[in-house]
Write a structure and sequence with these properties.
- Keywords: Membrane, Transmembrane, Transmembrane helix.
- This protein has one domain.
- Helix 2 packs antiparallel against helix 7, helix 4 crosses helix 6 and helix 4 crosses helix 11.
- The protein has eleven helices and no strands.
- It is an all-alpha fold and 280 residues long.
Length: 280
């Protein structure tokens, strides 16, 4: 391989190392044993929350800045009051904590076939982001191009990943629940799961949701009177859980990318400030 091409591949890999690191950390935690994963659950929850909140905060501030620039004068003090402060941060931290909890619990319950989909989603996100950025480069101000691109790529990336996860869930073998009552199905398939720890409680809750969706979908055909409502319940649970997980996963990647780009942008500013201080 030519030296220039090899250098280009290394530069490409390094420029996206933050995405690989975020995914590998979450995957590694999901493979830990129950005891060690339970001990590291709170640190992992905090870390994933911050990554998700970073991306959502960037999108929220972008929307707020566009609204303020459109309706307020440049010299208006309302810019400072309305640009978003502690309340905005708290709201997105809470949303990030909910999505992070869903992501971590779902990662512990994933089947092996879903892992390649998550790794392919990283590649797909990068391809979508780069293609969209090239199309937007002629229309969007350069300073705002990365943030606008990240905001617009979330929906298609999460939609494609959610669709792939739904197909994988339908393709995988499911527990046979036809003819069982809902309580009996839960008792039969949740026995042996430890709910003493905080992580164990959430894992048990997530497993109960999965059993409920399979029970509703399988028994809908058997019950003529309740068939339609049961089928609707099962499909809604399946679509909501897989879509929410895909949304949280893509938000994790977007947040990691936003933090990396923000760090690269602030580094020259810090160096320039130090240089000015030394010269003075």
């Amino acid at each position: 391989m030519p030296e220039g091409q090899s250098r280009g591949w290394r530069a490409l890999a390094w420029s996206h190392a933050h995405l690989a690191l975020a995914v590998l950390v979450v995957l590694f935690w999901s493979l830990l044993g129950d005891r060690l994963a339970g001990l590291l659950f709170l640190p992992a929850w905090v870390l994933v929350t911050q990554l998700i909140a970073a991306g959502s905060l960037e999108a929220a501030r972008l929307r707020r800045r566009a609204w303020l620039d459109q309706y307020l004068r440049d010299d208006s003090p309302w810019h400072r009051w309305l640009r978003g402060g502690a309340l905005m941060v708290a709201r997105h931290q809470l949303l990030g904590a909910c999505l992070a909890l869903l992501l971590l619990v779902k990662m512990r319950l994933l089947a092996w076939v879903d892992w390649p989909l998550l790794l392919l989603a990283v590649v797909g996100l990068v391809v979508l982001r780069n293609g969209l950025r090239r199309r937007l480069a002629r229309h969007v101000i350069g300073d705002h191009l990365p943030a606008v691109t990240r905001r617009l790529v979330v929906v298609p990336a999460a939609g494609l990943l959610g669709l792939a996860l739904v197909v994988a869930a339908l393709w995988l073998p499911q527990p046979y629940l036809i003819g069982l009552g809902w309580e009996e199905a839960l008792l039969r398939h949740l026995q042996g799961r430890d709910a003493a720890s905080l992580l164990g409680f959430f894992e048990r809750l997530g497993s109960a949701v999965e059993i409920t969706q399979y029970w509703a979908m399988q028994n809908a055909v058997e019950s003529l009177r309740l068939g339609a409502p049961l089928a609707l319940l099962g499909w809604l649970l399946l679509l909501l859980t897989q879509s929410a997980f895909a949304w949280a996963y893509v938000r994790l990647l977007i947040g990691a990318d936003a933090l990396r780009r923000e760090g690269r942008r602030s580094a020259p500013v810090a160096s320039r400030s130090r240089g000015e201080g030394e010269s003075s």
